[in-house]
Amino acid sequence: MRVVQLSAEDISGGAARAAQRLHLGLRAIGIDSRTIVRRKSGDDPYTYPAFAVPAADGHPASTGLRQDMRKVVFKACGYLDQLPLRRYSRRQALTWSIGWVPTGIPSIIARLQPDVIHLHWIGAGFVPIRALSAFQRPLVWTLHDMWAFTGGCHYALECTRYRQSCGNCPQLRSGREHDLSRRVWEQKHKHWGRLNLTVVTPSRWLADCAQQSALFGNRRIEVIPNGIDTSRYKPHEQALARQLLELPADRRLILFGAMHSTSDPLKGFTHLQGALRSLAQTPARDHLHLVVFGAPEPADPPDFGLPATYVGSLHDDLSLSLLYSAADVFVAPSRQDNFPNTVLEALACGVPCVAFEIGGMPDLITHQQTGYLARPFDEADLVRGIGWVLEDESRRRALAEAARRKVELEYELTLIARRYQALYHEVLRK
What we know:
Layout: E1 2-9, H1 14-28, E2 32-39, E3 47-49, H2 65-81, H3 105-110, E4 116-119, E5 139-142, H4 180-192, E6 197-201, H5 204-212, E7 221-223, H6 238-245, E8 252-257, H7 269-279, E9 288-293, E10 308-312, H8 317-326, E11 329-332, H9 341-348, E12 353-356, H10 361-364, E13 371-374, H11 379-390, H12 393-410, H13 413-429
């Protein structure tokens, strides 16, 4: 069986890392998985940039003018995809994809002669909407956010217009029914109606959203969580981890991080700031220290009321597992999230997690067993959760052990790869 994975990136961002982990997990159990990306940053030999995909028989990709033109197209597609958004100067600063730029991706995929095509995060112009109907192979699509069934946004927040046909988009602030979101939705409805498509979501929350959507309401939807290599993400001795990373040895370390952790409004940085300012008013403040990753220290750092260390972006598994192991608690105050890799990685490293009870957080965090689920956007309850984890060391250690055990039983990469293997076989039989 040959499976071709499509992912805009290979290691940059949570969706990309989840897709790449699955690709490696599939290869480890004997499935011929290949990944095509818009931009390659890692070194996996079976992951190819879209402009340089070899043929199934091993012949190298085309060279010369044709490859150079493809390289230009894929380099520019993200910029070109955003051009129609310029008409909406008042729109919110949230991620949006339109999917209109022709990239020639169907003929590129055909070079590998796949049995199954597995889609992941294909936004930012990587795979145009109309291309899916030209793939002519069974499709499995793991949704890493809501884009597949909306009119262009990746997270709809409070909006539920994807349950009808979008339009009058609050993120665009358009004030018109037949706006860009309606036109994008109509293109999806037109080109995806007859797809041989099986939808997978990592979280039950996203499955419920997809099931309620007008585009995917009649589709088969499976829930398969993201997997993680528990031999790479595992607890390390805390004192050694802090020494290696030059972090305070005598403080309780509160860890926060994600890609663009301080600038992406969905990650809840402002909620974290408010919660920590409240925590700084308690007697515990003298023993606390914040560690932020996924963003450099800003020129004008915000006041948390606590000392803070910014460690920037970390990409290799060892550095990340050491960072998690150095922490006493991981906080994920997201406003909306599907199945955040950061929480999965922290749990795998034996770190209790505190988050709002939204999205896929209840799938990952068992309240008061592997962490704490606070009432949505209640910063006082978030503070209670952090304090509850940290105030009793024996309880914190019990939470840490339960967190690691949960990951080993439910999210170990080989288990997840075999679930996808079974799904591929079922799709092909049908």
